[in-house]
Design a protein that fits this description.
8-stranded mixed beta sheet; 7 helices; 8 strands; about 35% helix; globular; binds fe (ii) ion; VOC domain-containing protein
């Protein structure tokens, strides 16, 4: 094994993160305006995905659809901008259609963020987005240097099975605006 990887794994375990971060929850793509359906058809052609949910994010001029394989996680989420100035379209113009983030389900997001901040991990927002009352709390890390995708930490409450709430999605998408422009 690579020495740097072993060192990091030990650190993570010692910090308690292996008990707090549970599994991959969803993989989120951002694709070119007008190519959302094509992207989903392309994936459905390779894997027997079924359509799950579609959301329109009016204020961000974007539409997000989710597909899933049987009843298993991770869900695949595909977003496309509906106008040139949409944060999604700006991102795709800069980086191409690609995976934007991998979201991991955690069982105590406050703790995860507290530990990771202490370890020097940076996030796109100062605070966690959402609340227990809304059924979901989430936060994005800055993109990785090597593959330029974000890691999302997500915690769900009650029977909430979505990927964001109408208020959350605006904040979340807005939080990556700077990255699209960078
Ligand atoms: Fe997400």
């Amino acid at each position: 094994m690579f020495p740097e990887v072993i060192k990091t794994q030990e650190e993570i375990k010692e910090a308690g993160l292996d008990k707090l971060i549970i599994k991959l929850d969803h993989i989120a793509y951002r694709v070119k305006k007008g190519e959302g359906e094509k992207a989903m058809a392309e994936l459905a052609n390779l894997v027997p995905y079924k359509e799950y949910k579609t959301f329109k994010v009016a204020s961000m001029n974007a539409v997000t659809s989710a597909i899933k394989l049987h009843d298993t996680l991770p869900v695949i989420v595909v977003s496309e901008g509906l106008s040139e100035d949409s944060v999604v379209e700006q991102y795709v113009k800069k980086f191409g259609g690609r995976i934007h983030h991998l979201a991991y389900l955690v069982n105590n997001i406050d703790k995860v963020v507290e530990i990771q901040r202490k370890r020097g991990v940076q996030f796109t927002t100062d605070s966690i987005i959402g609340s227990e009352k809304e059924g979901i709390k989430q936060i994005f890390t800055l993109p990785t240097d090597t593959a330029n995708h974000i890691i999302e930490y997500i915690q769900r409450f009650g029977d909430f099975d979505g990927f964001f709430t109408p208020t959350n999605i605006n904040e979340l998408m807005k939080s990556t605006e700077r990255l699209g422009e960078a």
